[in-house]
Amino acid sequence: MITRIRIQNYRSFVDAEVKLRPFSLVVGANGSGKSNLLRALQLAFRNHTPFERDFVSADPIPLEKHVNYQLEKTTIQGWFDDKLVRCTTDDKKSGDFIRASEPVWVYNIHPGSVSGIEDVIDSSTVKADGQGTVQVLESLKSGDREDLFDLVEANFKWYVPEVEKLSLRTVEKGKKQIQVREKSLKELLPATELSEGTRLILCILTIIHQEEPPPIILLEDIDRGLHPRLFEYMAPLMKDIAERHDINILATTHNPYLVDCFKDDKDAVIIVEKKDGASTLSTLADRLEGLDYDSVDPDDMPLGNLWFSGLVGGVPAKITRRPEK
């Protein structure tokens, strides 16, 4: 599990450092650098792609990524170029570090991809847009990890109480589609009939319950299409999954209600903000320490409201006038 990151000379980042929790929520204004943070982490785990393809500059830019992994009691340090070039460890098996240097996705889930018909092939990975959800569920259901399929189904029914059963139907030979049975309906519903938020929940649950989840899961706009009341259940689930699998989950959001779920773990909220054109990183806990308590008491205001108000930064600047025609 990564406990701290430092990004230098990458896109909007000049030199920024921040602590990571098992599940970290990333907030900030549009264009502040939230997506660049996720891409930088993706790049750190990508072991076959030259870095230069992701730089804005036409000239090569020296980039060192120094990543600390905390695996049980052993610290593994890696310096990455286009792949891992060195590591130090005590008695951990090399497989642990190989797993830690595997490529990861920045998930920007398109609900339409989740509801599609997919070829039935043995797959253990959901793709960046949500494709492969059917294949992963089928692999779990028909393989020797039906227990993971049952966990996906149980959590799915928890979040969407009207769902009675999750299954996969054969559309034609070698092709399947997700379907659900709702308590109030006799007919089985194909995933195309489900709301976008419901499909998003199912995809996220499938990603985090994969047989071998990636070492870090990066989710763009995790709240898209979800009812705010679901956040109080989703956040603890993400944290629990991350801790049990010894992985990191980072998710971006613009929703203050989701920030409210972190009142007991303020270090887990990362604020991305631009200063003098460069993206900076800090935790909500750090910002609260520097707050003027004569003007506001954080205990009297929900965290989401505190962030949304602009008192701790990470929000768009106020628009003072309309643009000229």
From TrEMBL:
Residues 185-260 form the ATPase AAA-type core domain. Residues 1-97 form the Endonuclease GajA/Old nuclease/RecF-like AAA domain. InterPro entries: AAA_GajA/Old/RecF-like (IPR041685), ATPase_AAA_core (IPR003959), P-loop_NTPase (IPR027417), RecF-like (IPR014555). One of its GO terms (molecular function) is ATP binding. Pfam families: AAA_15 (PF13175), AAA_21 (PF13304). This is AAA domain-containing protein, putative AbiEii toxin, Type IV TA system.
